[in-house]
């Protein structure tokens, strides 16, 4: 199956195959180790407020239950530890917890389990801090005081209030991120974060019972099969282990095996649309790139599938929208018609715009992993439009953009913090392009202040159309995850915001 949607979508396919008898027997039999095994890169940390990678997020969503969780089928946020999250103005939010919530050590989950954990995230400057300061914009989050954060007020053991600097209709959806998970009173008092992170105690469906450098073992309080996450950063090793019956689920597929997934795994593979996207931004001060016609000519000259299937190794999907495809509530396929490769139309558009002379430098951050695709895009622009396109690495890309040193398109990476179109579009206004169209920004403000996240979808879609018209940032591709699994495992479910749901994995009876 090709990840690039030349076939229009990421789907699970199936092709009938013949399996070697020995491998088939091993895959069908119960292995010596009865645990459900998952291969993944080792997490950087298991401290929820500091989670910064896919494995950490996957484990966090099994060990903890956040205020909100995400439905694997629809991607929509649904209440978890929260009984309700309500607001009359989308600025002041009241959170009411479900009764009887407890951590796996038996201690109660209270309002302070959340508010004090959030304060710790900010004081310790963990990775999740930016979600409080830059996305939710919790009042006082940038400068926590001796008494805590001004925007966090505990009403009683089950009720607390969150005040934002401005309205945000998607705030409940944001609460499913690991940064907003609760911490037990013991670690909040001791602040021994390192010890806690080795074997953290959460309030979720699974509990970590053992951890070594090679594996993390999780167990359900009610019993049943243990789940073990094995440290396997190499996707090829994971893939081969599932084929050989030594692993139940692989969370990565190597580029060389992408074309054979259909035949290797009959109805046992999945591509999960992601929440991260790559764009080319256009700096507003550069006059010769200011015309939308020039930008659309460049866009149509880029053969996105050729890059995603080539140098990017099938780990990305060509974009046809400004909104990441993993944002199921509100994402629309096919919004960027100018993202389709069309040599003749690109040449004609550039001619109509008066052409481009001189070097066209494509800027990117040194060491970011962007070098390969930037070289491929530069080569396409040279071939398709006859431009003198050149890769331009720089040690600090954002500083170069802010200092107005960047004179050409530059790499922009954005990850939606929660499942709503607004979460994909807002970062583009902060990408350094200088774009400030009142119509588009007004629509994004309307989306943020909408009565509900659902009501915010329409103005966000209109804003997307305006952004595609002016194209301050050109969508290129989005990341996606791959999963393959063994014959014996059941319940494989995943989405862009939780990763593989470890708590849903079972084995065939």
Automatic annotation (TrEMBL):
<dbReference type="InterPro" id="IPR039424">
    <property type="entry name" value="SBP_5"/>
</dbReference>
<feature type="domain" description="Solute-binding protein family 5">
    <location>
        <begin position="77"/>
        <end position="426"/>
    </location>
</feature>
<dbReference type="GO" id="GO:0043190">
    <property type="term" value="C:ATP-binding cassette (ABC) transporter complex"/>
</dbReference>
<dbReference type="InterPro" id="IPR030678">
    <property type="entry name" value="Peptide/Ni-bd"/>
</dbReference>
<dbReference type="GO" id="GO:0042597">
    <property type="term" value="C:periplasmic space"/>
</dbReference>
<dbReference type="GO" id="GO:0015833">
    <property type="term" value="P:peptide transport"/>
</dbReference>
<dbReference type="GO" id="GO:1904680">
    <property type="term" value="F:peptide transmembrane transporter activity"/>
</dbReference>
<dbReference type="Pfam" id="PF00496">
    <property type="entry name" value="SBP_bac_5"/>
</dbReference>
<dbReference type="InterPro" id="IPR000914">
    <property type="entry name" value="SBP_5_dom"/>
</dbReference>
<protein>
    <submittedName>
        <fullName>ABC transporter substrate-binding protein</fullName>
    </submittedName>
</protein>
């Amino acid at each position: 199956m090709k990840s690039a949607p030349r076939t229009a979508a990421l789907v699970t396919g199936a092709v009938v195959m013949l399996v070697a008898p020995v491998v088939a027997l091993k895959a069908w039999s119960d292995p010596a180790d009865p645990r459900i095994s998952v291969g993944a890169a080792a997490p950087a940390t298991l401290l929820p407020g500091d989670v910064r990678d896919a494995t950490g997020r996957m484990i966090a969503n099994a060990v903890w239950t956040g205020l909100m969780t995400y439905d694997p089928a629809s991607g929509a946020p649904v209440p978890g530890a929260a009984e309700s999250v309500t607001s009359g103005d989308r600025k002041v939010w009241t959170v009411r917890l479900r009764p009887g919530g407890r951590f796996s050590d038996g201690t109660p989950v209270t309002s302070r389990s959340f508010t004090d954990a959030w304060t710790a995230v900010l004081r310790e400057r963990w990775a999740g801090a930016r979600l409080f300061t830059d996305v939710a914009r919790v009042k006082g989050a940038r400068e926590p005081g001796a008494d805590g954060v001004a925007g966090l007020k505990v009403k009683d053991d089950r009720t607390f209030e969150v005040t934002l600097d401005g309205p945000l209709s998607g705030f409940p959806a944001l609460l499913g991120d690991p940064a907003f998970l609760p911490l037990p009173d013991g670690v909040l008092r001791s602040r021994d974060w390192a010890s806690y992170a080795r074997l953290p105690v959460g309030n979720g469906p699974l509990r970590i019972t053992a951890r070594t450098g090679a594996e993390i073992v999780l167990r359900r309080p009610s019993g049943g099969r243990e789940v073990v996450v094995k440290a396997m950063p190499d996707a090829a090793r994971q893939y081969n282990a599932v084929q050989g019956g030594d692993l139940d689920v692989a969370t990565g597929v190597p580029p060389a095996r992408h074309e054979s997934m259909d035949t290797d795994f009959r109805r046992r593979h999945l591509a999960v649309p992601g929440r991260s996207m790559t764009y080319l931004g256009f700096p507003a001060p550069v006059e010769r790139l200011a015309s939308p016609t020039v930008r659309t000519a460049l866009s149509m000259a880029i053969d996105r599938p050729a890059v995603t299937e080539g140098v990017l190794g099938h780990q990305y999907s060509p974009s046809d929208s400004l909104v990441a495809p993993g944002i199921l509530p509100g994402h629309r396929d096919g919004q960027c018609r100018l993202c389709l490769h069309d040599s003749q139309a690109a040449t004609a558009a550039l001619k109509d715009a008066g052409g481009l002379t001189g070097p066209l430098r494509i800027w990117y951050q040194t060491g970011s992993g962007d070098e390969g695709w930037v070289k491929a895009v530069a080569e396409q622009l040279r071939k398709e439009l006859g431009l003198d396109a050149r890769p331009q690495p720089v040690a600090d890309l954002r500083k170069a953009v802010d200092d107005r040193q960047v004179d050409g398109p530059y790499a922009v990476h954005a990850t939606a913090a929660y499942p709503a179109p607004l979460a994909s579009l807002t970062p583009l206004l902060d990408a350094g392009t200088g774009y400030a169209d009142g119509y588009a920004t007004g629509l994004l403000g309307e989306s943020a202040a909408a009565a509900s996240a659902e009501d915010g979808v329409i103005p966000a879609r209109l804003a997307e159309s305006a952004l595609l018209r002016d194209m301050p940032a050109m969508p290129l591709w989005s990341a996606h995850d791959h999963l393959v699994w063994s014959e014996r495992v059941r319940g494989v479910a995943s989405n862009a915001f939780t990763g593989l749901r470890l708590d849903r994995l079972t084995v065939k009876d």
